[in-house]
User: Fold this.
Amino acid sequence: MGRYGPYPPWRPGAYGRAGGGVGVSGSAAEAAAAEAAAVDEVRLRRLLGAAELSWLLDRVRRRLERGRPLTGAVSLAAPTPAQRAAAERLLGRAPGGGASLTVRLDAVDAVLRRSGISPEGLPAAVSALTGPVVPREEARRAEERAWAEAYTPLTLLARDEPRLADWAAQVRDSGLVRRVTGTPAAARTLLDQAVRVLRELPAEPARSLSVFAADVLGGAHALDEGTPLAAIVLSGVRALTGHPDGEGAAWRRAAWASAGLLRDDVSSTVLALNLRGTPALDWMADVGEPCVLTLRQLAHRPPRTAPAVVHVCENPAVLSAAADHHGAASLPLVCLRGQPSAAALALLTHLRGLGAAFRYHGDFDWGGLRIATTLLRHVPWRPWRYTADDYRGAVAAAGRAAAPLAGKPVPSPWDPDLASVLAEHGIRIEEEAVLGALLADLTP
Assistant:
């Protein structure tokens, strides 16, 4: 059986092969329809539609796709007797002897026109039998237009969310979407879903990832690990929240949680010292011991009261030292332990709602500035010994013991001079290096 025979009734796009799923252009379809209207399809199928002539239709179609004229001869090596007989019926005479079968396209075109079967000749006949033929160059241009349109959701997201503009450009230029989808239509569906998710983030208050997926995408497993959608959305989450690079299940869980999406409600935690407002918190504050609060606890039994000021630090060593030195007398302190977790954001947002204000300190390095900026996007805070002047003093005190600064520079919105001075000195100062001053501030 040949590629085009026997031929079913033609429908638009049924035989369009080039273009990776792109449909026939409007102009080509209209021209093909006009030509097909004049073709005597019944007689044409008897004359040219036999399976034994499918090789001939294939050669003609390929010429049309490449934009080559339908002149000269085409040959078939080692034809069968049935193929020779079909060519003889088509031309009304033997096509010639020899081991191969040779058919002149001009002669076929003349037969079709003279007989009235296809007044527009061989091109119209091939289109009537196999569907509109789109030249490859036209198909390539149509495909590129379709791919450009598929990225429209990313373009609109970058316009509305400048923080995601660089990420959107990277996704578009990397070729990842093309590789995982294969067609513009599938890519458009994938990007529509990804953008729909990112426009809803960060989730406040934090929510279960599966519940969020069901609400936004209509399926609880739509953002399951291992799917192209989850991979693209998670990369967008990192661009949105500034979550650092990493790998592994724990890192992915933390990355989702940075945007308020939780795989469970007990893995996300926050450290606190001397907060009150629940029986458990009151008991821990009475003895001056740190406590670990899970997101589940904060969702079901949040503190009922809040102090006027809560100090916030980046590193657990500061909180542990405060418990050691001051115990129950220490001012209330919350520790982020790196990027703010969903539990940390839930706690601080709740305390702010109760009237608390925040004083924040972190490491004097680019990672510390990223963490501070992320926190500032969620809750307002004033710097706690975390300004350009504080950094200069810490550098002078550290002397040659300070470590060199590494990483990509980032701004410091609460004190623009801090980022500039950090780059100027190129020295990293960790919270532990200024621990004495921080502990002094935590004395009531």
